[in-house]
Specification:
The protein is α/β, with parallel strands linked by helices. It has 8 helices and 8 strands. The protein has a domain of about 170 residues: TIM Barrel. The protein is about 40% helix and about 15% strand. It has an 8-stranded parallel sheet. The longest helix has 22 residues.
């Protein structure tokens, strides 16, 4: 599965063509799915372009994107940078009147289990965000409900390619005991090497302007769809290599 991460916690100061409004997210989602994305992750924004968990903003983003790509699963962030207080964050999740298919919950953040419990109570799938270089793996594996998540989102925070690939291999080894699908992704300079590693292992993957602003040759990505097209080509090439070796 290839997921597109449309915007992330970035701002227009970093990327002038970042999709921010519901209409922009809908257009970006439509183009990315046409390019080969099968799943969507996005960050709803407030009027100032900052991440928000406000129910109205979440509903507006989800409704616009779902109208543009009906039937495609859509997830949102629950990151602590949007609402720092854990109890307030869980309360906002309980107030959502339009539910995403799979919110991400970051296991290194305080209150992760409270947010996850609020989502499980509403029978919503969870992407368990496991950041490298944090205690997230042990916290997640020690959580009694870990088997109930939809997938693990293995997030490699190192951006130096060689270091990131090494870290990814270690993190995947630590997660080996979890009988849950893994989506692997990297950031910035490591995004493409990590995507190639994940493709070689047959893992779920993601790409988009949240993770990287450049194509593998270093040229600026004009949009999410361009990133998805190259990622899809990379995955198909890796699949062909694996089949040729079998």
């Amino acid at each position: 599965m290839l997921q597109v991460c449309l915007n992330g916690a970035r701002s227009r100061a970093e990327c002038s063509h970042l999709p921010v409004t519901p209409d922009e997210l809908a257009t970006a989602a439509r183009e990315a799915v046409a390019a080969g994305a099968e799943d969507i992750h996005l960050h709803p924004k407030d009027r100032d372009g900052r991440d928000t968990l406000d129910a109205a903003a979440v509903a507006a983003a989800l409704n616009a994107v779902r109208a543009a790509v009906p039937g495609v699963p859509v997830g949102v962030t629950t990151g602590a940078w949007a609402t720092a207080d854990p109890q307030a964050r869980a309360a906002q999740v309980r107030d959502w009147n339009v539910l995403p298919d799979h919110p991400s919950v970051n296991w290194h953040e305080d209150g992760a289990t409270d947010v996850a419990a609020a989502l499980l109570d509403r029978e919503v799938g969870i992407e368990a965000g496991i950041y490298s270089g944090t205690p997230a793996v042990r916290r997640f594996l020690d959580w009694p409900e870990s088997h109930r998540v939809l997938r693990i989102l293995a997030e490699i925070t190192e951006t130096a390619p060689q270091d990131a690939v090494h870290t990814a291999a270690e993190l995947l080894g630590e997660l080996g005991s979890a009988a849950t699908p893994v989506l692997l992704h990297g950031e910035e300079g490591a995004a493409w090497p990590i995507l190639r590693l994940g493709a070689s292992r047959g893992l779920d993957l993601r790409i988009g302007l949240e993770d990287v602003l450049h194509l593998p040759d270093g040229t600026p990505a004009p949009d999410n769809a361009a990133l998805v097209r190259v990622a899809r080509e990379t995955i198909e090439h890796s699949r062909g290599v694996r089949l040729g070796q079998s």
